[in-house]
Amino acid sequence: MELQWLEDFLEIAATRNFSTAATARNISQPAFSRRIKSLENWIGADLIDRSTYPVQLTRAGTMFLPGCQRLVREAYRLRTDCRNVAGESSAMLTFTSLHTLAMYFFPKWIGSPLISRLPLRTSMHAADFLESIDHLCSGQCDFAITYVHPDGPPVLEGGPFESLQIGKDRLILVSGTDDSGRPLFDIDGPETTEIPYLAYSWSDGYIGKLATLIQSRWRRPLNLSTVYQSGLADGLKHMAVAGRGVAWLPQICVAEAMRQGRLAQIGGQQMSLELEIRIFRRAGSGSHDSDALWQHLKQCAALPQYKSSFEAAIDAA
Predict the structure, then answer these.
(1) Residues in domain HTH lysR-type (predicted)?
(2) Which one of 97, 137, 301, 314 has the fewest beta carbons within 10 angstroms of its own beta carbon?
């Protein structure tokens, strides 16, 4: 038995597609299939019904799933506890977040005066939304940082999870600019005029849905024609700067390009959405260091200057 076999099973249970699951696990599909088969041989029963598309769990697989989730979670928690008992002066706190937040938010947040006073050692796993949530659910990290909006898809509302707000951002519609700094595209033009659209790929299950939410609130249907897709906000940003279309992007991601005049916001506030940045953890299962950080964050949340720093950060962006 190998721990990676259990993690492979959780991936195929989530995606129901061998190719997608293998890509997420960063191995070839044949190697992934062999590892699933090795797990089934060890269990002594078929866990995956390969005769359907998408694949389904067998009755044995359905029974095995919750126990597998607990085993993986407990294995990582036990490793953390053992490292703490071994006497490390400060355990490594593990985070996962969206790529945008890992690049543009986390460094400033972890280095802010209220947080940097703690003697923290941290590691970051940047991923798309679904992988970030799965990472936390399977016990592979201490904390997950992601965007949340009340009208967006629910984020870990069920189960033993708790969260705190640690920042704010805005999702805004941007366009590249011409030599005089004017937007290349205008959503207020004739309805028959197609606007090239830089869209989030299916793997980003959250920001893409929020962009759809904004469109539904516009006074008339937008004539957007998708010309490019990416799961990375930075990828969409560079395409927008190159003049390839319009995109909804987190303000924290495009702030510098807007200050330089390479991007411009279009559509005004009606085409934007304010987002909370929240940190999640599994309640009651943390190490001493992760509990200390959580209690510190809860104390900071009561300070007026802490919440005012959200506004300052978004205004600076």
Answers:
(1) 1-58
(2) 301
The span from the CA of 213 to the CA of 149, in Å, is 11
Token duo for residue 236 = 């969409």
The correct answer on CATH 1.10.10.10 for the domain covering 3-85 is yes
The residues pairing with 146 across neighbouring beta strands, listed in sequence order, are 278
268 within 8 A of 146, measured Cβ to Cβ: no
Cα angle 102, 6, 42 (rounded to 5 degrees) comes to 165
- Stated pTM of the model: 0.69
Buried b (16+ CB within 10 A) or exposed e, 78-111: eebeeeeeeeeeebebbbbbbbbbbbbbbeebee
Superfamily of domain 88-163+278-316: Periplasmic binding protein-like II (3.40.190.10)
What CA dihedral angle connects 25, 133, 247 and 173, to 10 degrees?
-170
